[in-house]
Amino acid sequence: MSVAARVGRRQLLARWCHRLGALPLLKHVRPGARGEVRVLAYHRVLESADPEGFSFDPELISASAEGFQAQMRHLKAHFVPMRFDEVLDHLQRGIPLPEGAALVTFDDGYDDNYRIAFPILRDLGMSAMFFVSTGHIDSGRPYAYDWLVHMLCSAPTGERLQVPALDIDWEIEELLPERRRQAADLLYRVKLLDDDDQAALVARLENDWGISRAAGHPDCRPMTWDQLREMQRAGMEIGSHGVDHRMLAKLSQARMVDEVRDSKRALERELGVPARVISYPVGGPDAFNHDTVEAVRAAGFDLACSYVAGVGHPGPRTQFSLPRLPVERHMDMPWFQAMMAMPELFTYASRLRTG
Length: 355
Known about the structure:
Elements: H1 3-19, H2 23-29, E1 38-42, E2 44-46, E3 61-64, H3 65-78, E4 80-81, H4 84-93, E5 101-108, H5 111-123, E6 129-132, H6 144-154, E7 160-163, E8 168-171, H7 176-190, H8 195-209, H9 225-233, E9 237-240, H10 253-271, E10 277-279, H11 290-299, E11 303-309, E12 322-326, H12 333-341, H13 343-346
Parallel strand pairs: 1-5, 1-12, 2-3, 4-5, 5-6, 6-9, 10-11, 11-12
Antiparallel strand pairs: 7-8
Helix pairs in contact: 1-12, 2-12, 3-5, 3-12, 6-7, 6-8, 10-11
């Protein structure tokens, strides 16, 4: 089934439930589990969910500014927004989480988190956890996956993309919508490779197409430490997303341990408080494993978030693999409200990469 078909069915059902006034009923008849928490996963919030000429991954746009504000208002009115330190305190003291507990998280560390999402949260008196890749903070350097999409969307007309290891020999399409579809396919396949091969492909295309990442790009900037410090002072939480946004399970043991440990050290050095929570970059079932979990535990983290879709039940079994509810740009308010009311029916299904 295509992504469009999956999106359409959930959205259509959510709209019908909204029109019939069934969403409050769904929330009340759903058997709530003791100690559960809805962990919302965002990436980017821009003024528009579909900016004209945008040459980066549009699927990382979680919502428009207007849409995000409406989502946060709904969350505040109908659920119990919490901070991770509050959740951890409940767990350590053996106190059940309140019914309707919810956490808001952002992955990667884009500067629109500071420019657009942060003021909305601050004005509403809410908090969120921002998981950042520490090696990119203050660098102005876009993340490798973002740059891969940008290069394909910006390559000269008539170029070919050849990646024998991925069975790719494509002529680059002429129009941006078609290039975006190619980029989505490429990104999916690239994440099947080990880390060295991923990095080598990005470097080769930078050289072949003359599109250097070193100069950065205004549409894909990471935050700065000063911005993160300001956000922290205003009540936001900052967590780890590794150093260089690498899929931890694709690294050698030594490099994986360094990514986990060094990101924690950087956060604590720059922000002056313990870094207690990490989000696995990419976050699917192939992005972390037993060794990753052990490295996270050994580094001193108290909790880890995946990008596997589901409702979280923090405890010994899920302490280092907490599922989340992805929020993406196709999700209108009826769908968002339906997902919050009955996540099992309305959340996105986790996508499993297979070779």
